[in-house]
Amino acid sequence: MLRRRTVLQGAVAGVLLTGCSGEEQATGPTTSPENPFGVSGDSALEVVVSEEYGGYAAPQYRKKYPHANVAATPTKQLRDLLQSRFAAGSPPDVVLNTGDKALATNRLVADNHLADLQPLLDAGSWENTGRPVKEALLPGMLDAGRYDGTLRALNYIAAVYGFWYSAKLFEKHSWDVPRTWPELLALGTEMKAARVGPFTYAGVHPYYVFEAVLTLAAKTGGHDVVKRIDNLEDRAWGDESVTRAIAAFGELTKRGLIAQGSSQLDHIGSQTKLMTSKAGLLPCGNWLENEMKAVIPQNFGLTMFGIPPIDTSSALPRGLHVAPTAPLLVPEKAKNRAGGFEYLRAMLSKDVAAQVTAESNQLTVVRGAADGLEISTALRSARDLLTAAGDQTITWYFADWYRELGKAAGDVTGQFLAGGLSAGEWTARIQAAADKVKQDKAVTKFHRD
């Protein structure tokens, strides 16, 4: 459970809807398993979304409530268009809150503008009223939207992180996907002999490779490793699992397994190096395919594998870093709040979630929604890793809570991989940055249970 936390915001462009919401009937219908929130079938519903997929539940809602006027239109100006409406007490009924112009979710919570979504979790799911919505969701995906223990935002998209490679290149050289870190180092040596820069990363944006380091640390020592880091506990960065993880990545530098020039590359440069087979491995999230789809070579076989554990004693051998993003919100003062809950219930149906995956090439937090879909090799590999991870999904929040600490962790990791710091110096510098945050009384502190 999280207390007073800032929800992760997805970095995607947005959409709005215009329209008017009708007042709910003073004596609306009674609740039932099929209508758990007592929706009035003729009340208008206003849905404001920052991605078009946020409107995909409208047909299901209209089918169930044919007399309701449901409006959903895209906009990229969420903050500009909605901030004043929240302040005036006339918000829409549903908001998908992502993008550069997203609303500050923590501010909305502080101002009591967001409804408690627990009734949604307890209600029966859209397809099966005997199964609560909360049981239809992937494990570990709700905490990102909890504030003081209350769910105020439901993050809809699951961003999966791992190492990417070309299946075509691996097949050409008869390379196997490494199952342990020693196997990864051996693979890097083979790649180097084949004149393929084994490992690349975005040196200009080193947080991406830091993400891989912390994932390896959590796989090694378990969930408590990142919980202690999130909670700014003393000497958390000196945990043996963390020091083993950074030492493991240090072997890439020591053995010359990092592609030349990686420390100077931005994210597009490092991704291009992978696409042109000048590098064999790249740490990144599963948005990679969407971002590079125009330049991915034919039959490239873009595929993700999970960061291999250091050895067979890992606490989370299937551990996978998953960041729930794209928060769905129901305003406390929505004119049709019951309809807002019902709309989210439809969004969390398998049919709608499957459509979102099929059309946006992203995974959702709905359990099994992407199963059986004809999707790309890249997305299928991420989906299969997410399914296999089960309750071993890894999440952390400190980089969002304390942005300067997150930036420091990335910057120091970049310096380390470029050969500018020792592992001990890496640990000391990040721990010092964490201690500075902890001791600063002007910084609001957050806690994770």
TrEMBL record:
Gene3D superfamilies associated with the record: Periplasmic binding protein-like II (3.40.190.10)
Source taxon at top rank: Bacteria
Cellular location(s): Cell envelope
InterPro entries hit by this protein: Bact_solute-bd_prot1, Chitin_NgcE, SBP
Keyword annotations of the record: Signal, Transport
Stretches of the chain forming a coiled coil according to its record: none
Keyword Cell membrane tagged: no
Primary localization class, coarse: other
Family listed: Belongs to the bacterial solute-binding protein 1 family.
Alphabetized PANTHER family for the sequence: ARABINOSE-BINDING PROTEIN-RELATED (PTHR43649), SN-GLYCEROL-3-PHOSPHATE-BINDING PERIPLASMIC PROTEIN UGPB (PTHR43649:SF31)
Protein name (Swiss-Prot/TrEMBL): N-acetylglucosamine transport system substrate-binding protein
